[in-house]
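Hi U.,

Before I forget, here's the chain from the pilot set. I'm dumping it here mostly so it's searchable later in email.
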Amino acid sequence: MGTSSSTLQNMEIARFMDNNEKFKAFVMESNTKKGIKIIDKSFLDDGDVFVKISFSSFNYKDGLAISGKTPILRKFPMIPGVDFCGKVINSSNKSFKKGDKVILNGWGVGENHTGGFSQFARVKSKWLIKLPKKISEKQSMIIGSAGYTAALCAILINENVKKKDGKILVTGASGGVGSIVINLLSNLGFQTVALSAKNKSYLLKLGAVEVIDRKDYKIAKKPLEKQKWAGCIDTVGGEILSSVISEIKYNGIIASTGLASSHLLHTTVYPFILRNITLAGVDCVYADKSKRIKAWNLLERKLDFSKLDFIKSEKNLSDLKTLSAKILQGKIKGRTLIKIGT
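Structure:
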């Protein structure tokens, strides 16, 4: 009697799981002790899907975690890295099979569950979505969590603002979220204005119709200023967000998704009552699967993939400490791809 294909697959999985092969990961043993270590599968947290990681990406939250200056990590030791793309090695969930290409963004991975700066990951199947067919593994992590967040913001604007209503302001525009959302909104037919302290030509190439230098932007002093923007995607928080709130047009909306400048917000109720504006928070970490799929489908359809090479830099696990310092100093533009390697 022959052996069924499912039995052979189960035997292969069992051999894999019994093999205590070593692999590389960037490990935070404490806020001060960190670096590349050789580990085995027993180091990884529990999950029903085991993934061989091809690429990860470097995000602002990763910089905070690795710096140790902000309590991002919930336990030690921990492998940071809030997202990854790779191939399923084995799965006990019928939604995923060996060889499937998958993406993970958020869900506390890299914070309280071992994350993406590793050659392998073991995670819960409900955290994964399948890689869209027109997006490569490498492209998915140039996009990364920042690009996926940008897509969530673009959907919010597209569903609540009419193009004829006016321009959309993007703050912190040179960063990962800003870079990709400018391109998405431009391709959706919106006129976007970038607010950034640097990289004017870069932002115009991505699709911005105008770039305002941060030093030329005057912080509003009154609760209601002249109505300028039909909407805004804000990644910085603080006094800039406070100021933009006073400049949003009647019925406008702000997608708030960052605090690179400050988590504090000083405002009044006047813009919300007298101009009927909305301040909407956009969370990418615990968004449900339907939102994730919708965001990645938008990226597949509307992102100009020719721009990805233009906005990305490629780094390795060995570069993570340096990247952490740079991103907190505002010295990184665009998207940073982390090549995991073999």
